# Entry
Amino acid sequence: MTQDSSHRVVVIVDENSNPFELGCATEVFGLRRPELGRELYDFALCSPEPRTLMRDGFFTLSGVAGLEAADAADTLIVPNRPDIEVPRRPEVLAAVRRAHARGARLVGFCSGAFTLAEAGVLDGRRATAHWQWADSFRARFPAVRLEEDVLFVDDGDILTAAGSAAALDLGLHVVRRDHGAEVAAAVSRRLVFAVHRDGGQRQFVEHPLPTAPDTTLGPLLEWAREQLATPLTVTGLAVRAAVSPATLHRRFRTQLGTTPLAWLTAERVVLACRLMERGELGSEAVARASGLGTAANLRAQLRRRTGLTPSAYRERFAAGG
# Structure
């Protein structure tokens, strides 16, 4: 375990910042976790002003640290104000640059990508932003490699999320990256939020809450999660759902923003991570138990999604490690 409660997460709150993303950061990184028996992060809010008027003047935030707190952050979450054409404060941009220069991790939720780009730390880097601002972002910051139709982008030390709800997806991704899949699952249960949505899923889902009972994927997904060790196929899932493979594919795209095969693979990787964290099985056994088949496929999928080999993942996250 390389991250513990001494890892300091600081959120810069600036004038006109979105309260929702602030709440997401507080929920994921700031709340006490008695069910885990330890705290995951040292969390703080800071602002360049003693009193900060939040988005549309809905309320005023006060009683938080000054901007100097950003200089102690291991992870710095930057302002995400929706007035994207208004230049960010020079002192805020300077704080972001200092954090980047000393190796802190930077996170931008929604319009936070504009803050990062304006600070100059995204040039040549991958990032995402809300789909409705994609054209404006690309026009202003052509040096940034914008990926506009994904939930979030993990580019190592700089991470960006698309819309408001994607802030929770990215927050849980960070917890999973820092503390492993088991802890991330516990935090998501506390939030009553989906345990895992891969960053590559689409931002815009046509019907996120399907109204017709016979079209919901919920029962199928729950069943599939219990069968991950078996040789599930898209055709098999379609048979279980009593639809054609083409219809199943369309429902996954419409309701989840991904494909059945991509969803299955992501779920299997999460299961493999949880099994490795428990430290009870070798790589071949983990691959079989998670449905990934072989140690070679486990290694390839794990590296693609976490950047770690199985042995490195065990060393970092296994119980007692």
